[in-house]
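Just curious. Invent one:
>
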Amino acid sequence: EGWIAREQILGPEARSKVPQEFQVQYPHYANPPTLFMAIEALVDQFSGGQEKDGETFTTWLKQLYPLLQRNIEWYRRTQYGDLKTYDRPKSFSSKEAYRWRGRSDRHILTSGLDDYPRAQPPHPGELHTDLISWMGMMARSLGRVAAYLDENEDASKYSKIHEAIRRNIDDLHWSARDKTYCDVTVDDYEDSVHVCHKGYISIFPFMTGMLGPESEKLGAVLDLIADEEELWSPHGVRSLSRRDELFGSEEDYWRGPVWMNMNYLVVRELLSIAQKPGPQQSKATKMYTALRQNLVDTVYNSWTETGFAWEQYNGETGKGQRTQHFTGWTSLVVKVMGMPDLSGGGKGGNRGHEEL
């Protein structure tokens, strides 16, 4: 039906080593559709027509295309958010709102941001900023695939969905009071209210490419990222603001530590803004240059000290923590190292860390 499972835990021995709450194998539970990022990157690579395997790629993509369509329709069918039952602010689209299934009072494991602070108590009327941002990325990516395959009618359809999501992100999730993007819940009076824990959730529309260089919200988003009392640290962008009352609390998994996968998305979008004319171009260039260097230094310094790549890094000390030998998303630092140097300081800009 289009569902892709969270992970494979095959056999009783493997299952015995995984706590029950992490065995979330239910066909109405989603997880972040990062697959579409890889698909979009491949379309970018082959769109120039210079790759020698272009015909093979096109044949493969045609086979994959109906499965990708099935996947996005599964998300739209199972993860929709309720815009009709509760008193919501007027939005551009009456359809494009989303909520993660599989929520408990402490976790939304399906979001990948397990213990990141959300609305309390949980409510079926919630709308989640990160999920609608993922959906926008999916629609954009699938539109790119459709256009590449000359499926023009589909390309138009997904372009309209993408635009509706982009507009609804602002209409539903932007808090004028807090000057940031926020989750939404329903209060005791059945009114829609923002729940604002500044951190990765707040910048998800930016990280997934939903904000262009002319966005009126972009300046405030960049200010939040660059604020040392909020998200910025010498070791990367923190997962939760230092000013949040829950910063560093309880499990402290997504409540402050620096994650390379999210920082990769931030630095990638900063580069995109830095390379396009717009009111935030200069600021984005400076932030990109500094963040890129900080990330490379953080991984390199911890690696020289411990011999490991780590699951996450301490936002205060830069030390690697949690799971070691973590060469999954932490290896994205290699992608960061391969990005262009905009500092004007010459080749690479990595201060001799080529041995990474």
Notes: The radius of gyration is 20 Å. The mean pLDDT is 94. The first helix runs from residue 12 to 16. The first strand starts at residue 174 and ends at 175.
